[in-house]
Amino acid sequence: MNTSGNILVLLVDDHKIVRDGIISMLQDEKNIQIIAEAENGIDALDKTEKYKPDLIIMDLNMPIMDGIACTQKITTSFPDIKVLALTMLDEHEHIKNMIAAGAGGYILKNSGKDELVHAILSIHAGGNYFSEEVKNSLISNMIRKRSQTGKITGEPIPLTGREMDVLRLIVQEFTNNEIAEKLFISVRTVDAHRRNLLEKTGARNTAGLVRYAIENKLESDSE
User: Fold this and answer.
1) 155-215 belongs to which CATH class?
2) Can you tell me the mean pLDDT for 23-37?
3) Region(s) of the chain under CATH 1.10.10.10
4) What are the start-end ranges of the H helices in the chain?
5) CA of 51: how far to CAs of 44, 55, 127, 144, 162, in Å?
6) pLDDT tens for residues 103-136?
7) Is the pTM above the cut of 0.70?
8) Is the pLDDT of residue 158 over 50?
9) Residue percentage of the chain with pLDDT more than 90
10) Which long-range CB contacts under 8 A does 182-185 form with residues at least 24 apart?
């Protein structure tokens, strides 16, 4: 169990120069501590078992086992460990597959330190974080599918007004405590709404809820 008060991070990337750069970028962050490095998915699984990090920064394109397969195994075996994808790959299929695997965030390697730190803190707090490029990729793909078929495949699952409110705030990266404050309800009630949303949408985690909201155009108040 982590009793240090810091966010313990496992850094997974097959390029040492990238790992060194991220370590240098985060070394002055008092609440974030990189406790181990891995250079491929198999190595990451071993280090996850050994060090039990709070959060994993995960590259996608790696030898032996890629980041998507590794994330799937980690989120299945260690559901409390958060995964942040940090990669050069911004294609829709990579993003969709990483979210489906259980990643709580997805940002690109051209992001700055502030965005990386914000993503780590957001995901660790129980929220999610997707860079603007990633959101735009998902939305563009959704619009393209709609223009080709005239509608998004499948009928939206009926959600209550309050569930919609909670879902939109989840997409906006608010934690359960913050959602409770904004909606003037208890954290326990927020938890109940979140569980209902997971059941109704078939999502496995917060990232899945975000994907559902984007694909069904529920992420904003606009119609």
Assistant:
1) mainly alpha
2) 95
3) 155-215
4) 16-26, 41-51, 67-77, 92-101, 113-124, 132-149, 161-171, 176-183, 187-201, 206-215
5) 10, 11, 23, 43, 39
6) 999 999 999 999 999 999 999 998 889 988 888 7
7) no
8) yes
9) 54
10) none
Region of poorest pLDDT, from 74-83, 142-151, 165-174: 142-151
Residue type, 80: D
Nearest to 85 by CA among 38, 32, 130, 124: 130
Distance between CA atoms of residues 116 and 131, nearest Å:
10
Cα angle 221-193-96, degrees, rounded to a multiple of 5: 65
Cβ-Cβ contacts under 8 Å for 222 (sequence gap 6 or more)? none
Q: How far apart are CA 146 and CA 162, in angstroms?
A: 27
- Amino acid in the structure at residue 67: G
Measured at the alpha carbon of residue 102, what is the angle toward residues 177 and 56, in degrees to the nearest 5?
A: 80
Kindly tell me the sign of the dihedral angle through the C-alpha atoms of 78, 69, 111, 22: positive
Topology of the domain comprising 7-136: Rossmann fold (3.40.50)
| Rounded Cα gap, residues 153 and 136, in angstroms | 20
SS3 sequence of 12-55: ECCCHHHHHHHHHHHCCCCCEEEEEEECCHHHHHHHHHHHCCCE
Residue 6 has pLDDT above 70, yes or no: yes
- Phi, psi angle pair for 219, to nearest 5°: -80, -5
**CATH 3.40.50.2300 residue spans of the chain:** 7-136
User: Quick check: 155 pLDDT over 50?
Assistant: no
